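[job 4471] stage=fold_predict status=RUNNING
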Amino acid sequence: MGPWSGRVARGPLVGLVVVALVSLACAGGGLAQPEGERPGANLRAASPEPNTTRADSTTSVAEFKQDVADAQAIAERYWAAQFKASGQRFTPIRRVTPYQRAGEVSCGGQPLPRNNAVYCSQDDFIAYDVAWSVAAFREVGDAFVFYLLGHEYAHGIQVRLGINYSFTIQQELQADCMAGAYLGDSVRAGDLRLAEGDLDEFREGVAAVGDDPDQPWFAEGAHGTAEQRTDTFFRGYERSLKECDLS
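[job 4471] inference complete, writing structure tokens
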């Protein structure tokens, strides 16, 4: 992979996070809270050795926490390798922070609401409402944890590369593509192992966070319809970062 050029902007990235179409100007990106999420993915992985992780579809809070830690570790290794291959220095996102109450965590002085997962570009951290995330984990499946972390981590990578777009949906769909590449490449490298039917279930989980089909493409905070998000995610999953408009 050659050096990334992407869409480079002078100065800091100003992103948007939407939960039920409410935007937070401090954040680099996030997942919209879906209405009626469908049963989702059952992503299985190899044993949790240094270069592998597990996601065995159990639903305990302990398993959720382990999956978050595994997803973070794989994302850090993955992006460190991509940056090294392109001759750039990589700095991991500072922390991944759960919270339980609205306003418990702030981004640039702005309190985060419930039912949310965000990357905060001003303070370089990922935060997620643990009750909402565990509920999604139990309803959608453990693959959702890896996708959620991968999507938010991608927003941190966009900041590190100085990528900016005119419309939120461009930023969000690129993050979906990057999350797909991180997961697909990790499967091909042996860091994750999928069981039969996992990809179909993964598709359902990504589709669950799509915008309403009537949402205007150019609307502030638009993330993309279920079809747009799944198509973009799986382009990255199947063909890696070359599909993500990073060069």
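[job 4471] summary: The helical segments are 61-85, 130-140, 143-161, 168-189, 198-207, 226-239.
[job 4471] exit 0
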